[in-house]
């Protein structure tokens, strides 16, 4: 037990050191730059929501790493190479992708550490995307229905003809 | 007893990893079953840091897999960077494309590069896993296979109705005689 606890201490110390962080965003201004979500449950394996936005900070930090929170899940945010453009990709199972407004809260490294302790921490900004819901393909194709109707018609014709005889 | 041994060994291995540099596993996979002209085609990239140090200045570049003549980008960036990926963290990045032309597209992989520690001068680079060969169908093919065929059936019934209705009329009139 003593060995386990000392290992735990060593690991958590290493993890804390690893996350001791860099840039902070002062006076943030978050501007949405477009978002898109897939709306076909048959065509895609999962529903994907992609949201792009810009973040302007008064202190123009160099190595800004942002995090996004949506539906209590934390996502890492990817950034564009040159322009002030960030992207969050959220993947939902089709069952969870009903029509809804998806709110994405943006945090910097300090902010996400505060969020992990207290979920009511203030984000840099919130980006919203309205997802209209999914369309599904009917499991029965129209060809199947046509074949069934023709079978019924032929069966009816056959019995009618034999009744005539 | 075995569970305790498993936990101990897991902690031991992870504490060993804590002294190692960052190591990224990169995957690329399609999120869409088919490619169809003009319809969404979603590509998903996953970057996982399985090392013990944060990976910094991570770049992901897949522009060469989807040239502008063949694909429109609906949303998302094909060239991105992640400033920092802590040990154990991952990022899933997706791009929504729209194919412009039909045909076969070869297997493709994206390029990644990263620094294995916060203040490291070393640059590690590599490729993601390969997305399989992709076939983009024409819109007409897709509509024929999966689209609503209601108009086709209605047209068929309209064409068939004269013959069928005449036969019915002939039978009814002969039955009444």
UniProtKB/TrEMBL annotation, chain A:
Record keywords: Disulfide bond, Endoplasmic reticulum, Isopeptide bond, Membrane, Signal, Transmembrane, Transmembrane helix, Ubl conjugation
UniProt cross-references to InterPro entries, sorted A to Z: TRAP-delta (IPR008855)
Signal peptide per UniProt: 1-22
Membrane-topology descriptor: Single-pass type I membrane protein
Subcellular location field: Endoplasmic reticulum membrane
CC terms in the record's Gene Ontology section: endoplasmic reticulum membrane
Transmembrane annotation, as ranges: 138-158
Pfam families: TRAP-delta (PF05404)
The protein's role, per its UniProt record: TRAP proteins are part of a complex whose function is to bind calcium to the ER membrane and thereby regulate the retention of ER resident proteins.
Homology family: Belongs to the TRAP-delta family.
SUBUNIT field: Heterotetramer of TRAP-alpha, TRAP-beta, TRAP-delta and TRAP-gamma.
Record protein name field: Translocon-associated protein subunit delta
Organism from which the protein derives: Pristionchus mayeri
Automatic annotation (TrEMBL), chain B:
Signal peptide start and end residues: 1-17
One family name in Pfam for this protein: TRAP_beta
GO cellular component, one term: endoplasmic reticulum
Keywords annotated in UniProt: Membrane, Signal, Transmembrane, Transmembrane helix
Transmembrane segments: 153-172
This protein's name: Translocon-associated protein subunit beta
The species this protein was found in: Pristionchus mayeri
